[in-house]
Amino acid sequence: MREQPNSTSEDHARLPVVALLLWALVAFAIPALSQALNIVDIFALPLGYFMVAQGALIAFVVISWASARWQDRRDARRAGER
């Protein structure tokens, strides 16, 4: 017999989709906007360069951390249901 989908399986499927969408947004949107940001300088570097080189990496770390935390909370909630 097949299991009926429930909110737990929907939550499980939503996690990687949200993380990948955020990852793609940061990976493609920030470099696309970097030319417009280059009119401002930070520490003698154009803001566009700074955002692509540093800001994107920081965003990737934050997305990874949030995704892992979300997964841990979901797993703990599932373990509590058993």
Short description:
This protein is mostly helical. It is built from 2 helices and 2 strands; from the N terminus they run αββα.
How does this structure look, described?
With 82 residues, the chain is mostly helical. The protein has one domain. The chain is built from two helices and two strands. A two-stranded antiparallel sheet has the order 1-2. A hairpin with a 2-residue loop joins strand 1 (41-42) and strand 2 (45-46). Helix 1 packs antiparallel against helix 2 (47-81). It is elongated. The protein starts with 6 loop residues before the first helix and ends with a helix.
Observed structural traits:
82 residues, mainly alpha, 2 helices, 80% helix, 5% strand
Helix/strand order:
HEEH
Radius of gyration: 18 Å
Distance between the ends: 20 Å
Strand element count: 2
Shape: elongated
Task: Compute the number of structural domains.
Answer: 1
Mean pLDDT level: 82
Query: Strand fraction band?
Result: under 5%
